[in-house]
Every structure is written in structure tokens, then in C-alpha cells.
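FORM 7B - TANDEM STRUCTURE REPORT

SECTION 1: FIRST PROTEIN
SEQUENCE AND C-ALPHA CELLS:
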Amino acid sequence: MLCYLSATEAHRLMSRRELSPVELLTAVIDRAEAVEPRINAFTEHLYESAMEQAKAAETAYLNGTARPLEGVPVAVKEEHPIEGHTHEEGSLLLQGMVAEESHPVVTRIAQAGGIIHARTTTPEFSCAGFTHSRLWGVTRNPWNLDYSPGGSSGGSGASLAAGTSLLATGSDIGGSIRIPASSCGVVGFKPPFGRVPALPPFNLDQYCHDGPMARTVADVALLQNVIAGPHPWDVASLRPRLELPPLTGDVRGMRIALSLTLGDYLVEPDVVAGTLAAAEALRAAGAVVEEVALPWTRGQIMAAADAHFAGIFGAGIGELAAEHADLLSDYTRRFAEMKPELSFYQGMELEGLIYRPLGELLERFDALLCPTMAVPAFPAEHDGGPLSVNGESGHYMLGVMTIPFNIASRCPVLSVPSGVAATGVPTGVQIVGRTYDDVTVFQVASCLEAALPGIGRPAGL
């Protein structure tokens, strides 16, 4: 199916005039028309303008002026505003609001020739690890419709898995790129803080990262190279721009640390099996993989995160909740009502203590391998309340293992598929690099992608 081509292969075929951008976009739109009623990954279709761009891309290929993403269909997370289009963030409070400017990521995709044909769903204000809202309804996992694609970039993950986009954007403040990447069997990259420019005020929040999602590691690298680099609107954006090199997947001689639990996370058997398979694949490829222990506890991680979220994310939502609580989703109100154990300052102290053993570990190892989630996926309509994780009931976010690396925000992290659980939902692993060492995590991910058996595509859609 053309809609499941990788972006790099599609670009190659279009460059050789063996595929038309119009033909590719038509296949993607036809796929969306067929599956969208069941997965509900899109908030807005931009098919008419996209088709005009596809026709222009044909001319660019004929003239030899094709850009890096020329003619490639890209789905953009609705949280990334596009000037002149709605920017509702899944909330009844913002219904009908129109953006006055475009996110730098959106602008760079367009400048590189990418065709933004759709915008993707999120939970309200992107504040959950699942994707449903009172405004847009429930987004479902293409692998098993009873499950969530994860969140908050769940629409992007579901779209990629379903074949309704070749590339997609996401953002990650607690795992919101990596959670859907894992649950949907795709690849997602949390860049280190400042690598990809963002808009105020969240460009100043070290937990917050905008980044690329795709079905292959090479495609994620392609999109990352387009969106990365300093921007005049973002004081935190890094100079100089990092260009990821061609990936060889050579891990011979690398030292990889393996942690199955990141301290005391309760990890379900299917996830453990996928992580061990990834470790064996790296060993077979010539890496030295050594299981290690980290002194973290789930309570410690959540206490630091709660202090941060309450001070930044929760405070912003709290202003809205004060006057319009009745219009908010239950999970959004919980954010506004957070009463963390620690002050924001105490949370920062704890964040420093949490990073230290990881930093020391990464002095001895080139990267860390661990599960992305403790469970394969959340139920599609989970309300954000307690959830059983490997037999123990607790906060549902204890089902994800991503937050430590928002705390360690300068560490690049890639999530790649590791297998498929008994429920039919994929599992994933995270590759965590030293601060700002993006290249190594991409090389390790490229190796894993080639060494592990493919997980195929969702059946039955």
C-alpha cells in the first residue's frame, strides 16, 4: 500500500519519477477516509490545499528543485498552531479559537516542502497519557480499538500506525511523544531541551520538547533535521544546529546499560519480553549490554514531576478552571486541583538528585536501554483515575516510564517498537543518550530496527 511507504522511500521514488506526489497524497487521503471513522485521529482535514501543494510538488520534482520533504504528507499535532486555523487544544473553552501565528515546527515543515494534510487529536490541553476529549471524542489504537493510542500525541501515533500520514509531529512534557510511539508501534524522538524551537511560555519549560514521529528511524531523523535549529522567537533554542548524519546502525563496541524497571517500576511481562529481545539484538550486533540498577523509586519520580506540573502546567490550567471548571474534562480538572507534596523549589532539588545516578551511569555507558511503558497501552476511554499496573492499583501514569527523562531533559530519547503484546498492542523500548548526544541514540535505534523482527501493520482496519 502506498500509504505505508516510508517518507525516505517515497521521496526517492518521487525523485526518480516513479511515484507522483498526487498519487501518494490520494492514497493517504483514501486510507484516511476508510479508517478515520473508527480511529478518530484527525481534528481537521486540509485535503484541498494539500492537493494543490502535491501538484506543485510534481513540478518541483520535474524541475529538479525538490526540497527534503517535497510532496511528503505530514500530520501535525493540533497543539502546534497554524496561522488562520483553529487552535482549540481539545477544549470546549477554546472551541472556535483561531491561531494568529504558526509554530516554528509548522513553518519549517512547509519550507521543506512537506504537505500538511491533516491535524491530529490530543487530550484536552495535552495533559494526559491517553487521547480523548469532550470536544473531539475518543481516539483509538489502530492495533486494537479497545485501547488508547496513548497521549498526548495520540492522534499522531494512531495516524502513522493506520497509514494516514507518512510523518507526524508531537510534543512531550511527560512522555507524550514516546507513549503513543510505543503503544502504536511507531518511532518517536524526544529531543534534548532546546534542540527544536517552540513557542512561549512552554519553550522555557525544560520538561517540554517538540519532536518528530514516523514509522522508521530514518524518517524520524529526516524530520528532525528539518525542524531542529535555533529560532529568533525562542531564546532556549540551541546553536549551532545539529545535522544528524546518515545512519549506519553500527553498535560494535558500544556499551549499553539495560534497566528493566528503572528502580521499582512494575513492568508487565509482555513489555519485559520485548525489552529483553531488544537487548539480545544489540548483543548480537556487537554491543556490550549489561543489566544495571538505578536507585529510583516511582514515588520519588512522581513527587518531582507533580511539583513541576503543578507549578507550571497545572497553574495555567488552574486559571481557566477557576471560572469554567464545568467545561473541563475530569482529568483536566484533576491537573488544576493538584496539591503536590513538594514545593516547586523542593521539586528542583529532587530533580537534581534523580539525575545524578543517571549521569554517573552514562559516564560508563554509551546509552541506556529500558521499556517505554510498564503496560502496553491504556484502555481507550480511561478517565485518568487509578489503574492496575501488573496487579497493583495506583496512579495511571505509573504505567509509563518516560517521566524520568523529562526530568533529565537534556538527554535525547528515542522510542522504537520492541514487539507485540497478547492484546495485539505493540510494546516499545527507550534508548536514552548522554546529554545532547542525539547521534548515538539514532545509531542504536537504527541497529534495533534492522535487528528485531518487524511488527507488521494493524490488521482489520
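SECTION 2: SECOND PROTEIN
SEQUENCE AND C-ALPHA CELLS:
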Amino acid sequence: MKNPVQGAQVVGRVASLLRLVGRKPEGSSIAGLVRESGLTRPTVHRLLASLAAEGLLDHDARSGNWILGPEIFLLGSVAAARFPFEDLARPSLRRLAEETGESAFYSIRRGQETVCVLREEGSFPVRSFVLHEGVRFPLGVASAGTAIMAFLPDEEQETILSGWDQHAGSFAAGHRMDVVRRNLERTRLHGFAVNPGLVLEGSWGMGAAVFDQLGRPVGALSLTGIEPRFRPERQEFLGKLLMEEAHRISSTLSSTLTGR
């Protein structure tokens, strides 16, 4: 039994490093990967070198960062046919960006996290750079994660909240449990989530959940920008647009999956 366990452990470590590198377009330094992965520097270096030899990672000699390699692009291109996010969400993102001037995003649920998979830049010249493709947040963190978590079954929410500090990790300080509970309640009441600069001061966001044919929240549309663009008097307007587009995607998703 020893070798299978060791093999599974290596796979888990490799997957973790790939996710960490993929969080940012500029990649990550080896020091950052050691810190975030919790692995020793020799282990991280050995795994990075092996991944680079397979074309899954590259080492940027200029910045010193490790970045995703060409094999990841090829694998992603093949996988994209199974996950048609571009066709599903891009039209909604474009409408949201054009009507609001804010940057629009589509995130999906992966386990206990949200992952941003698409973005559309708005015309407003001052932007928030908290969110981009590949960024992951724990459920309940940021507007997309709040929008999704708010419509999970009560018992599933309580399971997450019962281990909140561990679940939220470095975001727990800005997302106290009492604040999160209030945000979840407001989201259920209004239908959209508001993140009042909890991830990064001055960077606000709003999100609305996308549901599958069984009514389960599987993704979320969101808008991000600077605080003055998300004043209370504008939130109703933005929330209405988000919910309309989220409903449109939910209907399309349901029709596609049921064959209608």
C-alpha cells in the first residue's frame, strides 16, 4: 500500500503547484511557491524541474518566475470543448461591461472554491486588479463566492462555516464569520452579493449566481471596480443587470443539459 499512497501524494503536490503557478499570468517565484505550498524548497525545485521537462511549466529567466508551459495550453484547448464557458458566458460579460463600464467576470465552483474562468474589461479607466482568469477564492469570499454559497443547502453552508477560519485561510481576517453570515443573508434577500472591499480595501465587487437544471449554484457573474462606482444608489442598477444575465445563462445551461 505504501507506493500507491506515495504516488497519490506526488500527484497531489504536482496539482497544487500547477494551481499556484496558474493563479497569476506572471507566474510565481520559487520562494512564493515554497511558502504557499508548505513543501520544502528541494521538493518544490525537483517537482518544478520535472514539470518543466514535460512542457507543463516554463521558467522565465528574466523575472525568475515559474509560468504555465505550452503543454498546459494544448491540454486546455482540448478540454475547452467539454466546458464551453466562452459560448455560455461571453455574451453576458460583454453586455455587462458595455452597460456598466466595469470589468465583468465569470467564475465557476470547483469543490469549496470559486475559479475565475473568463473576464471582459470595462471602459472605465480606473480598475480593480483583484480578479482575473485563474484566480481562486474560498466559497464565501469575494462576491462570486458569496453569491454561490448563499444558495447552497443550509447544511452545506453550516459545514463550511463550522470550520471557517481554516476554510478561508488568509482571507479570514477580512471576512469575519459574523460579516460573512450577514453577507449571505443579504444575498439571499436581494438576489445578488456585494463585497465591500473585504478582499482588498477600496476594491468592491458584486455577483449573482448561475444555476444548473436542478437549481444548484454552479457559477457566478460578477463586476469589480473601485468603491465610488458601487455606491448604494447604483447597486440596485448593477444587481438587476447581474441577475438578468445570470438568469439568461442559467436558462441556457438548463436547456443545453436537458436537450431542449
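SECTION 3: OBSERVATIONS ON SECOND PROTEIN
The CA atoms of residues 174 and 198 lie 5 Å apart.
The chain has ten helices and eight strands.

SECTION 4: SIGNATURE
Preparer initials: ____
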